[in-house]
Write a structure and sequence with these properties.
Layout (H helix, E strand, L loop, with lengths): L1 E8 L8 E6 L21 E2 L2 H10 L6 E5 L5 H13 L3 E5 L7 H4 L4 E4 L17 E4 L4 E2 L8
Parallel strand pairs: 2-4, 4-5, 5-6
Antiparallel strand pairs: 1-2, 1-3, 6-7, 7-8
Helix pairs in contact: 1-2
């Protein structure tokens, strides 16, 4: 599994400081995608377990969540990294353009964002978005956390 970059982000998982990994090889190719450079599987660098653990340890007690932007198309590798994150006491989140992912992936997540980007409907901050931010434990849609009053 290749990742294009790694960032510390503050808005993608409300209430959490997240370590965000943008995974290469996205097969969805959504119209209006903000990251078409992620479509090529060979872009970026290999995200080895060793590299991943090193990053998690570097941010221990500073960040609280690990967020994958994609990666569900490499399910076994994604599950392995999610399991490592949980063992290091991080919460976990996946942003996917799919409507659903396997139960095996869901079992390793605290949150999931589902739904393809649709420029006419907007993202999570839009009241008419087709995308859903779901808390797995309660199976509750939490889009309200992104919508400004």
């Amino acid at each position: 599994m290749n990742y294009y970059d790694f960032q510390v982000v503050f808005q993608e998982v409300p209430g959490e400081i997240s370590l965000c990994f943008s995974i290469c090889g996205c097969p969805l190719r959504c119209e209006g995608c903000h990251s078409p450079f992620l479509w090529k599987e060979q872009s970026g660098s290999v995200l080895t377990a060793k590299t991943f653990v090193s990053i998690l340890q570097q941010y221990k007690n500073l960040a609280s969540c690990v967020l994958f932007m994609g990666g569900e198309w490499q399910e076994e590798q994604l599950i392995n990294l999610l399991t490592i994150a949980k063992s290091e006491h991080y919460k976990t989140c996946l942003y996917t353009g799919l409507e659903q992912v396997s139960e095996s992936v869901l079992n390793e997540l605290d949150w999931i964002k589902t739904g393809k980007w649709n420029p006419l409907l907007g993202g999570l901050s839009s009241e008419i978005s087709n995308q859903k931010f779901i808390e797995i434990k309660t199976n509750t849609i939490k889009n309200n956390l992104f919508i400004k009053n």
